[in-house]
Specification:
- By secondary structure, the protein is of the alpha+beta class.
- It has two helices and eight strands.
- The strands form two sheets. Strands 3, 4, 6, 7 and 8 form a five-stranded antiparallel sheet that branches.
- The longest helix has 24 residues.
Amino acid sequence: MNKPVLTALTATLSTPLLAAVFASLASAAQHDVSLAAAVDDNDFTITIVNDTSKQLEGDWYAKSADSDRLTSGGVVRAGDEANHAKRNVDDARYQVTWLREDIVDNQWGTDGLSDPQTAEPYSFTIGDGDDGGPNLRSGSLGRLFGSLGSLGSVR
Protein backbone atom coordinates (compact mmCIF):
# COMPACT_ATOMS: atom_id res chain seq x y z
CA MET A 1 0.00 0.00 0.00
CA ASN A 2 1.18 3.47 -0.64
CA LYS A 3 1.76 5.81 2.29
CA PRO A 4 -1.29 8.17 1.85
CA VAL A 5 -3.71 5.22 1.68
CA LEU A 6 -2.13 3.57 4.74
CA THR A 7 -2.28 6.86 6.68
CA ALA A 8 -5.95 7.39 5.79
CA LEU A 9 -6.82 3.79 6.70
CA THR A 10 -5.01 4.04 10.05
CA ALA A 11 -6.75 7.34 10.89
CA THR A 12 -10.16 5.94 9.95
CA LEU A 13 -9.76 2.82 12.06
CA SER A 14 -8.19 4.48 15.09
CA THR A 15 -10.54 7.48 15.43
CA PRO A 16 -13.44 5.58 17.09
CA LEU A 17 -11.02 3.83 19.44
CA LEU A 18 -9.36 7.09 20.50
CA ALA A 19 -12.75 8.77 20.97
CA ALA A 20 -13.90 5.94 23.24
CA VAL A 21 -10.70 6.10 25.31
CA PHE A 22 -10.91 9.86 25.80
CA ALA A 23 -14.64 9.73 26.57
CA SER A 24 -14.06 7.14 29.30
CA LEU A 25 -11.28 9.24 30.80
CA ALA A 26 -13.44 12.37 30.80
CA SER A 27 -16.49 10.79 32.40
CA ALA A 28 -16.48 10.06 36.10
CA ALA A 29 -18.35 7.30 37.86
CA GLN A 30 -21.64 8.06 39.57
CA HIS A 31 -20.49 6.58 42.89
CA ASP A 32 -17.25 8.63 43.02
CA VAL A 33 -18.94 11.42 44.99
CA SER A 34 -21.48 10.85 47.77
CA LEU A 35 -23.29 12.75 50.50
CA ALA A 36 -24.63 11.55 53.86
CA ALA A 37 -25.88 13.15 57.10
CA ALA A 38 -25.35 12.31 60.76
CA VAL A 39 -27.81 13.69 63.32
CA ASP A 40 -27.13 14.40 67.00
CA ASP A 41 -30.02 16.02 68.91
CA ASN A 42 -30.69 19.29 67.05
CA ASP A 43 -27.37 19.32 65.23
CA PHE A 44 -26.46 17.63 61.98
CA THR A 45 -23.32 17.11 59.95
CA ILE A 46 -23.28 16.70 56.18
CA THR A 47 -20.34 14.66 54.89
CA ILE A 48 -19.33 14.79 51.24
CA VAL A 49 -16.89 12.10 50.08
CA ASN A 50 -14.78 12.77 46.98
CA ASP A 51 -13.28 9.57 45.57
CA THR A 52 -12.15 11.28 42.35
CA SER A 53 -8.67 12.40 41.35
CA LYS A 54 -9.76 16.04 41.09
CA GLN A 55 -10.71 18.76 43.54
CA LEU A 56 -14.45 19.49 43.58
CA GLU A 57 -16.45 22.62 44.34
CA GLY A 58 -20.13 23.04 45.00
CA ASP A 59 -22.96 23.49 47.45
CA TRP A 60 -25.63 21.57 49.34
CA TYR A 61 -29.03 22.81 50.47
CA ALA A 62 -31.13 21.41 53.35
CA LYS A 63 -34.75 22.50 53.44
CA SER A 64 -37.81 21.56 55.46
CA ALA A 65 -41.41 22.57 54.83
CA ASP A 66 -41.26 25.24 57.57
CA SER A 67 -37.62 26.35 57.62
CA ASP A 68 -35.34 28.66 55.78
CA ARG A 69 -32.91 26.89 53.50
CA LEU A 70 -29.72 25.85 55.29
CA THR A 71 -26.73 25.78 52.96
CA SER A 72 -23.01 25.34 52.82
CA GLY A 73 -20.43 24.91 50.13
CA GLY A 74 -16.79 24.92 49.36
CA VAL A 75 -14.01 22.67 48.16
CA VAL A 76 -13.44 18.95 48.69
CA ARG A 77 -9.90 17.87 47.82
CA ALA A 78 -9.28 14.84 45.63
CA GLY A 79 -9.60 11.57 47.57
CA ASP A 80 -10.85 13.34 50.71
CA GLU A 81 -14.06 14.22 52.52
CA ALA A 82 -15.53 17.45 53.84
CA ASN A 83 -17.81 17.85 56.85
CA HIS A 84 -20.26 20.72 57.32
CA ALA A 85 -22.06 21.05 60.67
CA LYS A 86 -25.23 22.97 61.46
CA ARG A 87 -26.16 23.54 65.12
CA ASN A 88 -29.47 24.11 66.94
CA VAL A 89 -31.65 23.29 63.95
CA ASP A 90 -35.44 23.23 64.29
CA ASP A 91 -37.23 19.88 64.60
CA ALA A 92 -38.38 18.90 61.10
CA ARG A 93 -37.92 16.52 58.21
CA TYR A 94 -35.18 17.90 55.95
CA GLN A 95 -34.39 17.15 52.33
CA VAL A 96 -30.87 17.78 51.05
CA THR A 97 -30.11 18.57 47.41
CA TRP A 98 -26.55 19.09 46.22
CA LEU A 99 -24.09 19.69 43.38
CA ARG A 100 -20.36 19.10 43.09
CA GLU A 101 -18.28 19.81 39.96
CA ASP A 102 -14.67 19.51 38.89
CA ILE A 103 -12.72 21.85 36.60
CA VAL A 104 -13.61 19.87 33.47
CA ASP A 105 -17.36 20.19 34.14
CA ASN A 106 -18.04 16.66 35.44
CA GLN A 107 -20.98 16.95 37.83
CA TRP A 108 -22.42 14.91 40.69
CA GLY A 109 -25.59 15.58 42.64
CA THR A 110 -29.35 15.68 42.61
CA ASP A 111 -31.83 16.43 39.85
CA GLY A 112 -32.30 20.11 39.11
CA LEU A 113 -28.75 20.91 40.13
CA SER A 114 -26.57 18.23 38.52
CA ASP A 115 -26.67 17.24 34.86
CA PRO A 116 -26.74 14.29 34.82
CA GLN A 117 -28.35 13.43 38.15
CA THR A 118 -26.14 10.99 40.10
CA ALA A 119 -28.06 10.84 43.40
CA GLU A 120 -31.54 11.16 44.83
CA PRO A 121 -32.21 13.92 47.39
CA TYR A 122 -31.10 12.86 50.88
CA SER A 123 -33.68 13.04 53.68
CA PHE A 124 -33.35 12.99 57.46
CA THR A 125 -35.47 13.99 60.46
CA ILE A 126 -34.54 16.00 63.52
CA GLY A 127 -36.89 15.63 66.48
CA ASP A 128 -40.39 14.37 65.79
CA GLY A 129 -40.47 16.06 62.38
CA ASP A 130 -44.27 16.36 62.56
CA ASP A 131 -44.57 14.10 59.52
CA GLY A 132 -44.57 10.63 61.03
CA GLY A 133 -41.16 9.96 59.48
CA PRO A 134 -38.30 8.22 61.24
CA ASN A 135 -36.59 9.97 64.12
CA LEU A 136 -32.82 9.99 63.60
CA ARG A 137 -32.04 11.81 66.85
CA SER A 138 -29.84 8.99 68.05
CA GLY A 139 -27.22 9.85 65.45
CA SER A 140 -28.07 7.14 62.94
CA LEU A 141 -26.66 7.78 59.48
CA GLY A 142 -29.97 6.68 58.01
CA ARG A 143 -30.17 5.98 54.29
CA LEU A 144 -26.77 6.34 52.56
CA PHE A 145 -25.83 6.89 48.94
CA GLY A 146 -22.70 4.85 48.52
CA SER A 147 -21.21 2.40 50.95
CA LEU A 148 -20.84 3.01 54.67
CA GLY A 149 -17.26 1.76 54.46
CA SER A 150 -16.30 4.58 52.09
CA LEU A 151 -17.74 7.20 54.42
CA GLY A 152 -15.12 6.86 57.16
CA SER A 153 -15.76 8.64 60.42
CA VAL A 154 -17.70 11.85 60.77
CA ARG A 155 -15.43 14.39 62.41
